[in-house]
Amino acid sequence: MMAMLDLMAVLWFLALWVGYTLFAKRQARSVSCLSFELRRKRNDWMQKMLLRDNKMADVGLISTLERNVTFFASSTLLILAGLLTAMASADKLSLMLSNVVPWATYSESTVQLKLLLLAFIFVFAFFQFTWSLRQYGFCGVLIGAAPDGRGMSDEDQQLYANRASKVIDQAGHSFNYGLRSIYFSLSALAWFIDPILFMVAAVVVMLVMKQREFHSKVLKALQEC
Fold it and tell me: Rounded CA gap, 59 and 38, in Å?
């Protein structure tokens, strides 16, 4: 019975994770949210970049974004190393959990399975962060290769700015996917206590992300800018 409940909890978790990702991606195309507003701001940024003689400020902004992503990418590797170490000591961890949560029973294989889920989440996050990092590098190349916008027609300016901002936008999306993975990994920690609590925690994390993406104060500030 518990094995079936654990399986249901994992499927519920994956359904919420994938479902919210698809929902947010679809809504961002037409509904005002953080992704939608940032897409507009990035387009404005690239249009202004084309008219600047000195683009060092734009390169500096891209470098700052790359450093932020690099921090998360390196952090996921450290967490993965810790998880692999914990899997090797699953017997000690199961004993500790039995003392902390006396009403639940833990076997070494069960603990390893739960750690394996966390490892999968952080592997996915690492790939997203590193892909975001590469895409920000592409953005730096586009800024360095940007023509003088004052010698371009308005249509050509808009076309180049739109394509450059789309690359930055894709880098931002990959970064969001990585952050979303970390958020959902926090709910997966509840699985060590109880599978039902795991399911509830996944819903809470999803609602927190939805509130920040579609109803936060920073979104209202971006809308007014």
Answer: 18
Model confidence over 93-136: pLDDT tens digits? 888 877 877 777 778 888 889 999 999 999 999 999 999 999 99
Q: Report the pLDDT value the prediction gives residue 1, as an integer from 0 to 100.
A: 41
Rounded Cα distance, 161 and 43, in Å: 6
The C-alpha atoms of residue 180 and residue 184 are separated, in whole angstroms, by 6
Contacts of 68 (CB under 8 A, 6+ apart): 175
Residue 123, token pair as written in the block: 């592997």
Q: Report the run of H or E that residue 50 belongs to, with start and end.
A: helix 34-50
Reference 82, options 110, 107, 118; nearest CA is 118
Alpha helix (H) residue ranges in 51-89:
56-88
Contact 187, 205 (CB under 8 A): yes
Q: How far apart are CA 47 and CA 35, in angstroms?
A: 19
Q: Are 62 and 139 in contact (CB under 8 A)?
A: yes
Q: How many CB atoms lie within 10 A of CB 30?
A: 8
Q: What pTM does this model have?
A: 0.90
